[in-house]
């Protein structure tokens, strides 16, 4: 009795599956493969093949013209022993501190703008506009902005400061790197603000209403509603900002050309590769930088996973469980019933019935 019922159920399920009256169009599959083949080919040819070649170059002492000479791991040893490479890595700490300040300021501004603020759209546009400007153009703007006696010094003189008491913003090694960090913050702040605002807008407004009814103030709403709700974008912004600080290039290259102790790791690598033509050493520096960025990204991910370990109220676990159950249900359904029945089988069935 049970077997008969189960067989009838399977037959009913198969009966509900529609016939595939259209023949299989092999041309559609070819078109899909061709459309995928073009971008994948471009990616492999212009990204992965040069990257593999760069790994090979890092084991040679070579120039752009001439016969390369195998040196093994000597280039990697030089990366960690040369004073200029170590000092350029230390400069990344300036930009890391600036990146953290940038994310914190962007989070504050985005939180303010996420609530009802007069001229909110205007301020969003103002914050995001610097990100749209080309990096080289921004470099030239701030090069004249920080030049002695120009814009920044003139503004400070209007505020009552004496020009002789002001430092050389791009020459004084106590402050020139902070000037470049400020330029970077000014450019990328708007991007972080917009990403945070977009994430905050996806939070259900009823949560704020319930929190206000319970007597929660704005800080408590930020701590218990906004911060857990945007943790994914927060982690993304921090990772992008920290990894970007390790590869700072445009501002120090255009504004100071790496002079007066402002040569970052990327600027030094460019100088070694294109001026000194130490292609093997520059390739080794690029590989080391990639490893450092991957390690930093992994550490940040583990850190935020620990920080937000108690931020989940059970919703994410319930969603994962529901998705797993739905996946198992679909797998069982595919096992018990075919997706399509061929048109030929329909005619055969009709003849059999006749």
TrEMBL record:
> Which keywords appear in this protein's UniProt record, sorted alphabetically?
Cell membrane, Membrane, Transmembrane, Transmembrane helix, Transport
The way this protein sits in the membrane is described as: Multi-pass membrane protein
Transmembrane helix keyword on record: yes
**Which CDD domains does this entry report, sorted A to Z?**
TM_PBP2
KW Transmembrane helix (keyword) present: yes
TM spans (from-to): 30-51, 93-113, 125-146, 224-243, 279-299
> What SUPFAM superfamilies is this protein classified in?
MetI-like
The segment(s) forming the ABC transmembrane type-1 domain are 88-300
Specify where the region named Disordered lies, as residue ranges. Answer: 323-354
Q: GO annotations under biological process?
A: transmembrane transport
Q: What is its main location?
A: membrane
Q: Where in the cell is it found?
A: Cell membrane
Similarity comment text for this entry? Belongs to the binding-protein-dependent transport system permease family.
Name of the protein described by the UniProt record: Sugar ABC transporter permease
Q: Which organism is it from?
A: Bifidobacterium thermacidophilum subsp. thermacidophilum
């Amino acid at each position: 009795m049970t077997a008969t019922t189960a067989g009838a159920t399977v037959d009913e399920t198969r009966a509900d599956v529609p016939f595939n009256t259209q023949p299989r169009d092999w041309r559609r599959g070819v078109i899909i493969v061709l459309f995928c083949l073009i971008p994948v080919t471009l990616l492999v040819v212009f990204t992965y093949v040069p990257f593999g070649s760069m790994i090979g170059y890092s084991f040679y002492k070579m120039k752009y013209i001439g016969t390369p000479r195998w040196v093994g791991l000597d280039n990697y040893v030089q990366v960690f022993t040369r004073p200029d490479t170590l000092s350029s890595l230390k400069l990344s700490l300036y930009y890391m501190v600036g990146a953290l300040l940038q994310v914190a300021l962007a989070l504050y501004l985005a939180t303010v703008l996420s609530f009802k603020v007069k001229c909110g759209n205007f301020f969003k546009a103002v914050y995001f506009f610097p990100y749209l400007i080309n990096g080289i153009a921004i470099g030239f703007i701030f090069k004249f902005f920080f030049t002695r006696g120009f814009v920044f010094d003139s503004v400070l003189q209007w505020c009552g400061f004496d020009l002789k008491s002001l430092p050389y913003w791009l020459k004084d090694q106590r402050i020139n790197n902070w000037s470049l960090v400020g330029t970077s913050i000014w450019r990328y702040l708007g991007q972080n603000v917009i990403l945070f605002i977009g994430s905050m807008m996806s939070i259900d407004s009823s949560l704020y209403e319930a929190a206000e009814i319970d007597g929660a103030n704005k800080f408590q709403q930020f701590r218990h509603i906004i911060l857990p709700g945007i943790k994914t974008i927060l982690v993304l912004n921090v990772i992008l900002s920290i990894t970007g600080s390790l590869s700072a290039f445009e501002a120090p290259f255009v504004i100071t050309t790496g002079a007066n102790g402002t040569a970052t790791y990327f600027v030094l690598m460019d100088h070694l590769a294109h001026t000194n033509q130490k292609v093997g050493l520059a390739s080794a520096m690029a590989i080391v930088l990639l490893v450092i960025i991957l390690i930093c990204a992994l550490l940040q991910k583990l850190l935020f996973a620990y920080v937000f370990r108690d931020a989940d109220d059970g919703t994410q676990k319930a969603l994962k469980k529901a998705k797993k159950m739905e996946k198992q249900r679909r797998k069982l359904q595919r096992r018990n019933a075919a997706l399509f029945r061929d048109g030929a089988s329909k005619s055969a069935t009709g003849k059999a019935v006749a």
